Amino acid sequence: MKFTRDQLEKNQIWLFAIALLIGGIVGISKERLGTSLEWLISPLIAMLMYGMFTQIPFLKLREAISNFRFMVALLIGNFIAVPIIVWFLITLFPLSPPILIGVCFVLLTPCIDYVIVFTQLGKGNEKLILAATPILFVVQMLLLPLYLWLFIGEEMAGTVHIKPFLEAFLLLIVVPLIFAVMTQFWAKKNALGEKALDLSAWLPVPFMAIVLMVVVASQIGKIYSDFKLILPAIPIYILFLIITPFISRFIAYAFRLDSGAGRALIFSTGTRNSLVVLPLALALPESWATLAAAAIVTQTIVELVGELFYIKIIPKWM
User: Fold this and answer.
1) Which terminus of the chain, N or C, has less C-beta within 10 A?
2) pLDDT score for 42
3) Which residues of 192-215 are buried (b: 16+ CB within 10 A; e: fewer)?
4) Is the pTM of this model over 0.85?
5) Pair 318, 266: CB distance under 8 Å
6) How far is CA 280 from CA 106, 129, 231, 241, 300, in A?
7) Distance (Å, rounded) from C-alpha 54 to C-alpha 202?
8) Which one is the CATH code of 7-317: 3.30.1330.10, 1.20.1530.20, 1.10.238.10, 1.10.10.10?
9) Residue 57: partners with Cβ closer than 8 Å, 6 or more residues away
């Protein structure tokens, strides 16, 4: 019996759950081995994005960019609704300053990379998210210092540097995008290129599983050592994942978005920029850096589990 890509995609949730479990076991039982895998995160995400991008018909991206209602809804959701939710949650659950800045770093910045994959897996319109990534990138860089100043204090606004964001955008979005477009052009010209394009369609699900496993394996040790201090942030992350879909669905209804665009909006507001803002936390003073980074990694793990529910529930819900 031939194993098909449809069968792989139908069983992806179980595959992701197993990957999370393996990553957790490796990270806790073999902490040194898990930590040594950290350098693989960015290359693996780049391969994941390449596989995703090869399946997107880029000639239709003009339609996505011209979807003015979605772009406005996306900006309102990520940069007005989400900050209000974050402010409410950090008021409800007081945190120590290093944990607080880690929480703000990660929750106030919308994801610009693997959210595209999750949107596709959740039957949302990933072309809209892809078209919006440069806009999300620029706006979050402009507004993050303002949000930190409002939520934490003026002294923290100067901690944000554009370099980690720019590097992540170039390496995780632009480079895979260029190679994906080249693959599509190659597929139009000869049979070998067409086979390469068909093969690339198999990449997103297994590479997402590998990314989940490596992220958890390499980062869970940091959480384990500082768990008591990080614990108050976990309810914030869980409530964030629960609240944002309802707010996003209301915004989607208000802007009369179709189901694909509405799902894309939910995934964008619910998925945060954890792997990209991690270098920002590590650039903090040493006494703060470890705790802030651990708070961000905790959000990554909570979010990855939450995304498994999103992928299953959101297509049926909207």
Assistant:
1) N
2) 82
3) ebeeebeebeebbbbbbbbbbbbb
4) no
5) yes
6) 10, 24, 21, 23, 15
7) 11
8) 1.20.1530.20
9) 127
